[in-house]
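Q: Hi! First time doing this. I have a protein sequence and I read that you can turn it into a structure. Is that right? Here it is:
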Amino acid sequence: MASIESMIVFTHRGLEPSKPDFFPESSFEAFEDQLSRGFGIEFDPNFCKDGIVVWHDPTLERFSLGKDLRALHDLTVEELHGMKSWNTSHTAEGKIPTFDEVMDLIRKSESTTNALHFKGKYQTPDDLQTLIEHLKKNSDVLSRILIFDVKPETAKTLLEAFPEIALAPSVAHQHDVDRFNSVVAETLIETDEVVQMLKDGIFGKNPWVWLDEWDLTGENGGTKKLYTAEVFNKMRAAGAKIALVTPELHGTSPHLLGDEAHPDAPKGDTKTLFKRIKEIIDLNPDGICTDYPEEAKELN
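A: Yes, that's right. Below is the predicted 3D structure, encoded as structure tokens:
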């Protein structure tokens, strides 16, 4: 079991809403700042014409505040590299980093673990090979990288290339798997199925799980929770470390269901959110991914 003192706080793609003048999300400057403050980062490799940059969305619409609608897969790394944006309050500027630049920021930091979100839609043979090539270029950093949202067939290929790499499937309640799996390219796996995969060694020698509690809605109007001692005990018994997303993340993740929000993260009510984050921390996860890293550190 992890100790609370050793819990890793992953910042969520460079966001930090409690700092209204902070750098734009997923920017080189945001990641650099958060790593310098002792956090791990969660980031999204995005595949363009000839390589990988780090940006969450398939287009530049949000990055450009609506001025540029081009898709990243139609652009080159050179065209995207260093492209600058302002945050929504227009007080801080940031640039799109390349994948290698983010790896170098991690290399120069004191962070122990950082979360690479390999989205299901990119887990194709071509994009997977591109990622493997970039990981090989940064092999000295791999011990500090956790790749999550990994499908079983993707895990097999990654482990053939990197036998010691840390991988995590995305774990969800069966009701959420049934409702939402199509939104995330079929990466969600139900708890008991994941336990068996862990026992079978599907996710390697250093497995994690990435828990995702989409909401509290159960079947037939009932309620449910994924973040419970029972679920944690199952995952630990199967040999996995546990990371999870805090309740507010679905409200700040575009291109999922729109403006969905977790009941524990009502808009404008951080008191309720922080109360729930404290309850989650008391379950002793190995890592949490949050929009509120400073507050989570204080709650820890």
